Amino acid sequence: MHPDSDEKLSEEHRPEAIREKLNRPAKENVAADVVLGGIDGCVTTFAVVSGVVGAGFSPVVALVLGFANLIADGFSMAVSNYESIQTQGEFIQSIRETEQEHIRRVPEGEREEIRQIFQNKGFSGETLEKIVDTISADQQLWIDTMLIEEHGVQITNRNPVKAAIATFASFVFIGSVPLIPFMVPGLTPLLQFAISACLAGLMFFSIGAFKSRLFDKPVFRSGISTLLTGGTAAMLAFLVGYVLREIFGIAAL
């Protein structure tokens, strides 16, 4: 992590710079969706490849099952992410409507809630009453304050469509990388699997590195952590395939 210089920090905290930043509309951040989709896509695909190879099946089977799982699981994950974000938005809207109804029916009770919330933050006397009067004078501000302070929810709604698209695109793009060697003619199954493993490892490390860059964390440590997570899932799939092959006496193709 490289801390900003004092000069840069001072420049960013000038009154006009702060005003411009606060008036700027919030950007939709889909980085978490990209990371989630990428990791799950690579784990899913390479787990299929490892299971197929561990069971001794033909590389063509790995290719077919890999792409089938890639599209189906990617779509399922995108829909799940969409539904999750949409449900969260509906939940927040229901709380907003409830608070609006309470303000209409028992305004003094809602004012008392504001008073006690900020009293617990250390405000008292005339200052506390000014805060209560200021917030309760603006119904939108009043409701937003209750959402954050009483219910502990974020008032910024995410776009479920953008999140779903980012998840699906990342899932399919990164998840397809381990399948590339199986589309190259002339390679032995063992070499195909070895190259696929290297590509999957590279993807896992790259995702971890990308995540670390977003939050100014150590790149190598984050990359290795993600690599170990994905590698463990692939190893389990390989072992399951191998054990089942031995148990049922499946002949390698």
UniProtKB/TrEMBL annotation:
It comes from the Bacteria. GO terms for biological process: intracellular manganese ion homeostasis. It is found in: Endomembrane system. Its main location: membrane. Pfam families: VIT1. Residues 1-23 are annotated as: Disordered. This is Membrane protein. The chain crosses the membrane at residues 46-72, 163-184, 190-210, 222-244. Keywords: Membrane, Transmembrane, Transmembrane helix. It is a multi-pass membrane protein. GO terms for molecular function: manganese ion transmembrane transporter activity. It comes from Photobacterium galatheae. InterPro entries: Ccc1_fam (IPR008217). GO terms for cellular component: endomembrane system.
